[in-house]
Design a protein that fits this description.
It is a single chain. With 115 residues, the protein is mainly α. It is built from five helices and no strands. Helix 3 (40-66) runs antiparallel to helix 4. It is flat and about 55 Å long.
């Protein structure tokens, strides 16, 4: 795809690879662990809500900053840091609010390390 589509072809190829890996992992989960037994909706719905909010936050931050800073490498790094940081913060805050134990465990470990 690189020849015909340029670097966008790499993005599509990586997306296809990741989707294939997800399908293989889902198949292995069904085979080895007997599946999720209806728990998929309870997992995917909150994660989908948090991921959508994260994506909207990243897009909003990048749109707002992109209008006020001059293009260039520094601007790209600032957009990446600000958008990515805000997106991660929103994602973690939503999962924390939803009571996900993994997020509480990670943030607790970070607090202990930070003093």
């Amino acid at each position: 795809l690189l020849g015909r589509m340029g670097y966008l072809g790499l993005v599509w190829a990586d997306t296809a690879k990741q989707a294939g890996h997800a399908l293989v992992m889902f198949g292995l989960l069904q085979w080895k662990a007997g599946g999720l037994h209806g728990r998929l909706r309870g997992v995917l719905l909150p994660l989908g809500v948090a991921a959508t909010a994260m994506a909207a936050t990243v897009a909003a931050v990048q749109w707002a900053l992109g209008r006020v800073i001059a293009p260039g490498l520094g601007a790209d790094l600032a957009l990446l840091a600000a958008g990515g940081g805000a997106g991660v913060a929103v994602y973690a805050a939503l999962l924390w609010h939803m009571g996900w134990p993994e997020v509480r465990r990670i943030l607790g470990a970070l607090r202990r390390r930070g003093g």
